[in-house]
């Protein structure tokens, strides 16, 4: 467990979030999603619901602000319906960190599958809600002064998070030690 990082974020998930570039997508898939047949990079988060994962993930990354659809969910097939409480629970977690994010877009099942095949990774969760899958598109670090200041404040309010992330980056890059100034 790391200080300042939500315990729902496993080391494997933290590594994937770190390695993703802007524009890369990650799928938070429900427990019934065919993740292993869609993508070679599957991360297990069994028993963890998607709203809790969104809380953990969105505290660490931002969503792509240069596209109209940084959030995508699967649309119901004809004859099915969506439980809007599922999307509302996701939106609460999203709005906590990135309230200016556009509305969640819905695409048909097979288009969703194609995006999942091309995603950076698929996170298999314990979510049991029908049509509970969501795709997140990672953005770049904000450069506008107010947005950047907000991110820095969020990070500095977390006990030791910057130090933990620097240590993690050192480990990944194989560096013995580093001198960092902020």
Order of helices and strands: HEHEHEHEHEEHH
Helix content: 25-40%
Can you count the beta strands? 6
Count of helical segments?
7
CATH superfamily, called what?
Answer: RbsD-like domain
Main sheet characteristics: 6 strands, mixed
The top level CATH class name: Alpha Beta
Distance between the termini: 25 Å
Oligomer: single chain
Low-pLDDT windows of residues:
175-182
Number of domain modules: 1
Anisotropy-based shape: globular
Q: What's the overall average pLDDT, rounded?
A: 86
CATH fold annotation: RbsD-like fold
Which strand order spans the largest sheet, edge to edge or round the barrel?
A: 2-5-1-6-3-4
Structural class: alpha/beta
Question: Which architecture per CATH?
Answer: 3-Layer(aba) Sandwich
Question: TL;DR of this structure?
Answer:
With about 180 residues, the chain is α/β, with parallel strands linked by helices. The protein has helices at about 10-20, 35-40, 50-60, 85-95, 110-120, 145-155, 160-175; strands at about 25-30, 40-45, 70-75, 105, 120-125, 135. The chain has one domain: RbsD-like domain (RbsD-like fold).
């Amino acid at each position: 467990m790391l200080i300042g990082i939500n315990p729902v974020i496993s080391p494997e998930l933290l590594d994937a979030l770190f390695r993703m570039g802007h524009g890369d997508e990650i799928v938070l898939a429900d427990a019934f999603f065919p993740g292993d047949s869609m993508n070679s990079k599957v991360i297990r988060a069994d028993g963890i619901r998607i709203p809790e994962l969104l809380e953990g993930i969105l505290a660490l990354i931002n969503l792509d602000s240069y596209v109209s659809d940084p959030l995508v969910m699967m649309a119901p097939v004809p004859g099915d319906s969506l439980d809007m409480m599922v999307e509302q629970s996701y939106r609460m977690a999203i709005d906590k960190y990135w309230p200016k994010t556009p509305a969640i877009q819905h695409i048909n099942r097979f288009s969703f599958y194609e995006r999942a095949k091309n995603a950076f990774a698929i996170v298999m969760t314990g979510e049991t809600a029908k049509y509970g899958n969501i795709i997140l598109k990672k953005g770049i670090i904000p450069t506008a002064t107010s947005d950047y200041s907000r991110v820095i404040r969020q990070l500095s309010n977390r006990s030791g998070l910057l130090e933990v992330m620097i240590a993690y980056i050192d480990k990944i890059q194989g560096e013995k030690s580093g001198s960092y100034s902020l």
